[in-house]
Design a protein that fits this description.
CATH architecture of the largest domain: Alpha-Beta Complex
Oligomer: single chain
Order of helices and strands: EEEHEEHEHEEEEHHEHEEEEHHHEHEHEH
Strand content: 25-35%
CATH topology of the largest domain: Spore Coat Polysaccharide Biosynthesis Protein SpsA, Chain A
Shape: elongated
Number of strands: 18
Strand order of the largest sheet: 5-4-1-6-10-7-11
CATH class of the largest domain: Alpha Beta
Length: 422
C-alpha cells in the first residue's frame, strides 16, 4: 500500500483488559492458544510492520502479567496502557497514551483483542475506503439471517425483527483522534457506556460509514469460536505459496565475499554489479517467485546505476515491501550455498540471525546449508560460488507453523555456466 505524502497518520488501540468470563476459562480469552500463537498475537499481526500504522497501543488490565511474556511485547511499535472497568474507559486510556503523539485529525483504529482472523487486506480496505471521510467508519457485514425477538427472557419468540438495512458491527472501527476522544468522554460521562466506538460517535449525531468486512473476522466469545478460528487460520495456511531461486558469481579481485548480509573474509571477492551476495540474491528470487512477481533482474536490473555496489540487504528490503503490499509474508526459507571456499560453518549462525532479522522471522524458520561440487564444474574448480533457495509465503495476519524444509531442485545449468553480475 503506497502512502500519500500528506496522509494523516494511523494509530491502533486494542482494548485487552477484559477477563472473557463467558469463555469459562482460567486464562483470559485473548491469551488462549490458537494456531501456534495466542489469540491476541493473531489480532495484532495485521498491524505490526504495516506501512500506514505509526504505533499500536495495547490496553491491559492492571494485574496483567501475560502480555509481557509474548514475543511481540518487545516490538518497538507497541505501546501499553492500563485499562478501565468498561471498554470505553479502556479505549480512552489508550487514546491518552497517544495524546502527545497524534494530531487531531489522525486516524485511530480500535480493534478487538479477541478478533484473531482479521487480515491485512481487511485493514487496507478500511483505510482506503475511509481515506476521504470526515467522520470515519467501521468494518461490518449485512445480516443474512432472520432475527427473532425473545419474549421477556423466556426462551420463546415474540416475533421477527426486520433485517433490511441491518448490519453486524465488526472491528477495526476507525475514527479521527479528537472526535473519538470527545465522543467517548461524553458517552462515559452520561453513565451509559457504549458497547463500541461507533455507538459513541452516533450519539454525537454523526453517521459512521459501513465498510463491508469479512464473515471470517469473527470474535471469540464462546469456546466453540476457538475451533472455528482455528479452522479459518488453517484454511489460509493451505494457501501457502512456494518459490525457488538460484544465483552464481565468478570470483574476482577482493578480500571478502558477502553471504546472507554477513561479510566473510576470503582471498578473493566476486564480480558483481551490487555486492554480489549470492545467498540474498537467490533468496530474493525465491520470494519473488512465490509471490508471482518475476525475478530479481526485473526489479534490480544490472543497467540501473542505482544498484551499483549496493548492499543486497536493500534488495531484500524492497522485496519484503512488495510482499507486504500484497498482504504476504515469508513463512520459512531454506538456502544452500554451493562453494569449495569459503567454508560456511564458522559463519552459519551469524548469517541465519541476519537473514531472520531482514525477513522478520524467528531464526528457526531460516535454514542454511552448504555443499561442495567435488571439484566438478566452475564451482568445483574454485572459479566462483552459487546459492539456491526455496521460500514459502503466506497471508499476513496468520501465524504459520514452519513447514518441513523441502529439498531444492538442482541449479539450471544455463545460469550456472553464465552467471549474471548483480
Amino acid at each position: 500500500m503506497s502512502v500519500p505524502v500528506s496522509a494523516p497518520r494511523c494509530w491502533v488501540v486494542i482494548p485487552a483488559a477484559g477477563t472473557g468470563q463467558r469463555m469459562a476459562a482460567h486464562t483470559p480469552k485473548q491469551y488462549l492458544p490458537l494456531a501456534g500463537a495466542t489469540v491476541i498475537e493473531h489480532a495484532l499481526a495485521p498491524f505490526l510492520d504495516h506501512p500506514r500504522i505509526s504505533a499500536v497501543v495495547v490496553v491491559l488490565a492492571a494485574q496483567d502479567r501475560e502480555f509481557r511474556r509474548l514475543a511481540c511485547a518487545g516490538n518497538a511499535a507497541i505501546l501499553t496502557a492500563t485499562g478501565g472497568e468498561e471498554r470505553g474507559r479502556s479505549v480512552l486510556n489508550g487514546l491518552q497514551v497517544l495524546a502527545r503523539r497524534a494530531a487531531a485529525d489522525d486516524w485511530v483504529l480500535v480493534h478487538d483483542a479477541a478478533r484473531p482472523c482479521l487480515t491485512r487486506a481487511d485493514v487496507d480496505r478500511l483505510i482506503k475506503e475511509l481515506g476521504d471521510e470526515k467522520v470515519g467508519g467501521l468494518l461490518a457485514i449485512p445480516v443474512g439471517d432472520t432475527l427473532k425477538r425473545e419474549d421477556s427472557g423466556r426462551g420463546r419468540s415474540a416475533g421477527s425483527v426486520g433485517r433490511e438495512g441491518v448490519w453486524r458491527a465488526q472491528t477495526p472501527q476507525m475514527f479521527r483522534f479528537d472526535q473519538l476522544r470527545e465522543a467517548l468522554r461524553r458517552a462515559m460521562a452520561s453513565g451509559n457506556p457504549p458497547t463500541d466506538e461507533a455507538s459513541a460517535i452516533e450519539a454525537l449525531g454523526l453517521r459512521p460509514r459501513l465498510v463491508p468486512g469479512s464473515p471470517q473476522n469473527i470474535k471469540i466469545t464462546q469456546a466453540e469460536d476457538l475451533q472455528l478460528a482455528a479452522a479459518i487460520l488453517a484454511a489460509r495456511n493451505e494457501a501457502m505459496k512456494v518459490g525457488t531461486g538460484f544465483d552464481a558469481h565468478r570470483f574476482g579481485e577482493g578480500d571478502h565475499v558477502m553471504l546472507g548480509g554477513v561479510r566473510v573474509a576470503h582471498t578473493r571477492g566476486v564480480v558483481a554489479h551490487s555486492d554480489g551476495d549470492v545467498v540474498i540474491h537467490a533468496l530474493c528470487d525465491a520470494l519473488l517467485g512465490a509471490a508471482g512477481l518475476g525475478d530479481i533482474g526485473v526489479h534490480f536490473p544490472d543497467a540501473d546505476a542505482r544498484w551499483r555496489g549496493a548492499a543486497s540487504s536493500l534488495f531484500l528490503g524492497h522485496v519484503m515491501q512488495m510482499l507486504t503490499e500484497r498482504g504476504l509474508r515469508p513463512i520459512n526459507v531454506d538456502v544452500t550455498l554451493l562453494a569449495e571456499e569459503p567454508r560456511l560453518a564458522p559463519h552459519r549462525e551469524a548469517i541465519r540471525s541476519t537473514l531472520a532479522g531482514l525477513l522478520r522471522l524467528p531464526v528457526d524458520a531460516v535454514n542454511l546449508k552448504a555443499t561442495t561440487l567435488e571439484q566438478m564444474g566452475f564451482i568445483g574448480r574454485g572459479e566462483g560460488l552459487a546459492a539456491q533457495a526455496i521460500a514459502s509465503v503466506g497471508s499476513i495476519g496468520v501465524a504459520h507453523e514452519p513447514p518441513t524444509a523441502k529439498k531444492v531442485t538442482a541449479p539450471r545449468s544455463a545460469r550456472a555456466s553464465a552467471p549474471r553480475a548483480r
